[in-house]
Every structure is written in structure tokens, then in C-alpha cells.
Amino acid sequence: MGFLGSPSVASSYYSSSRVFLYPAAFVFWVLVLMNGAAVCNGGKTSTFVRKVEKSVDMPLDSDVFRVPPGYNAPQQVHITQGDHVGKAVIVSWVTQDEPGSDVVLYWSENCNEKKEAKGKHRTYKFYNYMSGNIHHCTLRNLKFDTKYYYEVGIGQTVRRFWFVTPPEVGPDVPYTFGLIGDLGQTFDSNRTLTHYEHNPHKGQTVLFVGDLSYADNYPNHDNVRWDTWGRFAERSVAYQPWIWTAGNHEIDFAPEIGETTPFKPFTRRYHTPYKASGSTAPFWYSIKRASAYIIVLSSYSAYGKYTPQYQWLEEELPKVNRSETPWLIVLMHSPWYNSNNYHYMEGDTMRVMFEPWFVQYKVDVVFAGHVHAYERSERVSNIVYNIVNGLCAPIRDQSAPVYINIGDGGNIEGLANNMTEPQPKYSAYREASFGHAIFDIKNRTHAHYSWHRNQDGYAVEADSLWFYNRFWHPIADSSSV
């Protein structure tokens, strides 16, 4: 039977080392009265029903898309991690009128002496669209846990921003990640980003699980919508790194208009530090950040045996030192466990290839997007099947990750609200709403996770769970019995 209390109640209940025994019927009815959740075969399907509304993109003259004033002013400024351990930052921006300067000036909060880094710029053409000048510059040899200011647009219209580097990598270093996916640029997208920005416990870095601009939903993959999205997201991603995962809306493969280079706009605009982890392509890579080891995979690149992504992951997982980075987090776009009829089983072929490794190396949590709703799984695996035994259903497995689908940023395609019934046993909590999540690492053994529906107050947790590290504290952290 599913645990019928709220997830926050469930997590606190199970975080106790003591077990209290009550008459079963009494517990059942108390919990039903507390939450009114539906009884189902699996966990909990939220009773919250979001009003059905059409998703609408914000018009091009919206304030959030405003071009910054000044001649050739840098726009679409964004940062991401620039090396493997967090001592470098890739700064990217666009100048529209002319190339302008490739230089970034930067200095730490406690030192006014400005340093200079020089990057490169390029343009690209997509059908009848010509991009602005896209600049990328890597700031290296930064100090850990330090606030830096940086300036772009040197010699013309200078714009200033700041960021904070992560603490030095270590097993008990606390750190907080935000989780956003499938964002787009609708009115709901704006609500989600605002909700994240105002969360009193917002992340220090965003783990973005793919599908950025949705420009490909417009005629001829209108790349103007890549520009508007870049200006929209700047208010967050210019100040804290977003770690990029490529989704299906980044493919931009359109042979009908002569565009046959997959991922062209995405790779020109959004760089990743893939070479630092020995990857041969920007779509799969790893980084360390504080006490976390983050592996990014590509659902839309080849991953069969002998492919570059397969071989890279096979070599990468044994490198993870859980005594240095206890928390092993994987990002991908297409989910492996999904009880929504939208995109049902699309991620299954990758699951078949890689799931045994995830169990072997005790991955703590896998975040995915693609499905425009929210869902959290139990710790399950489906790796014992062979052609003889017929064992082809997921089972509880405390060495397996929790799978969380958070493709609920608010994009133009709307909510995925067609869930399979009955709710499968592997599904712990699901809801057709938009929102964001927070993964708050406390130390090597404990992390607190929360999902925030974008229609609630800023601090409200619609779903939450205490995670117990699979390597250092592998006790059950389920939210259902």
C-alpha cells in the first residue's frame, strides 16, 4: 500500500531511527484525513488539480526579452562550469551590432585588481537567420568559495555581473542545487523561474535537464526565439552556473529547410566543459562540485555498445571516488521510469544499456525532463530479466537510484496530464503541474530534496524527501511502505 501522508511527513517519519507501532486501521484513516490522497497500486498521485489552461509564449515585446540599452551592449549573458573541479567558469554572451571585444575583466570581492581573460567569438547561419556574435571566454585558476565580479562589453557598453565559485571538493561540503527542465518562454516559464529565484533556499547552481528555448516549435525553427530565451534566462544564469543537458528540442535537425547539422544552435551558444572529463562531445561529460559528482548523459546521441558515449561512461563510473565526492548524480533528458502516457518508455533502450551500471556504482539520484509533469520513483531496478527467467518488472532495490522527472518548467507544449492507471508500484509521487526542485546536500550521508509547485508560496514544498547516501548511509529512504 502506498504511504498516504504528505511526502514531507513521510520523509520525517522515515528519518527517525525508531519505529512506532499503531493499529493499522487507525493509521490508515488518520493519514487519509491528513492528505486526502488517492489510494492506488503504487505511491501517491497528487490530489492537486491544476486548472487546465493553454500554454502561451510571452510576446516578443515583453519586458523579460528586452534588449539591454547601449551600443552593442552584451546580451544573453550566461555562465557554466569551465573545468572538472569548479575552479573555472565559461562566460558567454552575444553582441548584435558588431563583434566588439572578446575580453572579460574579473576580480574577486576582496581584491580590486582586475584580471583579464580573452575568449573567441563566432556566428552561425540557420536557414534564413544569421546570429549575432557569440562570445565564449573561460576564466581559469579561480579561488574556491569566492565571489567574483566580471565585466563584458569592454570598450563599448560595459555590463557587470557576479558569481560565487563552489567550495573546494570534499566529502562533507554542503551545497545546494536547483533543478529546472523543459523551461521554454511562456508565461508559465516566467512563473517557474521567478518561483525559483524567490525560493528562500534556492540553489547555488542549476542542474538543467534539457529543452531550453523551444525555437524548433516555430516555423523554420525560428532562431530569434533562441535570442529571446537567452535574454529571458540571463537574470539567473549570468549570476550562477547552469549545468547544461541537451534535450530533443536542442537537436534542430531540419533537412526540409537544408539544416542537417544536429544541435547547431545549442552547440554554438551553450558550451560545456566536456574535454575536462575526457569526453569527445559536448553532450556527455562530468563535473565535480563541492561533494557531488555529476554525470551528464545525452539521450539523443548514440549510446549502444562501442559508441563513444558508451565507452566514455564505462570508463567514467569507476573514476568516481565516493570518499571525495559521496553524492553521485546523473542528468539526462528522456526518463527511464515514467508512468505518464506522454513519452512512455522512450528512455527504455538507454535504461537497458546503462541501468546495471547505475546499480553497481550506487547512483544516488537521476534527474530527467522530457515529460511535462512531475514524478518521483522509489528506489527500483529492472536488471534481472533474461530471455529465460521472464522477470521483467521493476523491483525495490536499495542500491538503485531514485528517478525524478522534472520536465515541468512551463513550456509552450503544456502539461502532460495523461497518467497511466493504476499508478505502478515504482512510482512514489506524481503530479501534473509546473515547478522546480531543490537538492540540498548537508554532508556525506544526508541530503534534503524538495519539489516546489510554481503556484504555491515560495517556501512551500509540494513533495519532499530526505535522501540517505547510497555509499555512506545506504538505509531505506522511501516515502512509502
Structure, described:
- 16% of the residues lie in helices and 26% in strands.
- The chain has a domain at 170-210 and 283-480: Purple Acid Phosphatase, chain A, domain 2 (4-Layer Sandwich).
- α7 (348-360) links the parallel β17 and β18.
- It starts with 6 loop residues before the first helix and ends in a 13-residue tail after the last strand.
- The protein has helices at 7-15, 24-35, 187-198, 224-237, 264-269, 308-316, 348-360; strands spanning 44-45, 75-81, 89-95, 103-108, 115-118, 120-122, 125-126, 129-130, 133-139, 147-152, 159-164, 175-180, 205-208, 242-244, 285-289, 292-296, 327-331, 365-368, 374-381, 395-396, 402-406, 427-431, 435-441, 446-453, 463-468.
- The strands form five sheets. Strands 1, 15, 16, 17, 18, 19, 20, 21 and 22 form a nine-stranded mixed beta sheet that branches. The chain has a six-stranded mixed beta sheet with strand order 14-13-12-23-24-25. The protein has a four-stranded antiparallel beta sheet with strand order 2-3-9-6.
SSE order and pairing:
Layout (H helix, E strand, L loop, with lengths): L6 H9 L8 H12 L8 E2 L29 E7 L7 E7 L7 E6 L6 E4 L1 E3 L2 E2 L2 E2 L2 E7 L7 E6 L6 E6 L10 E6 L6 H12 L6 E4 L15 H14 L4 E3 L19 H6 L15 E5 L2 E5 L11 H9 L10 E5 L16 H13 L4 E4 L5 E8 L13 E2 L5 E5 L20 E5 L3 E7 L4 E8 L9 E6 L13
Parallel strand pairs: 1-22, 12-13, 13-14, 16-17, 17-18, 18-21
Antiparallel strand pairs: 2-3, 3-9, 4-5, 4-10, 6-9, 7-8, 10-11, 12-23, 15-16, 19-20, 19-21, 19-22, 23-24, 24-25
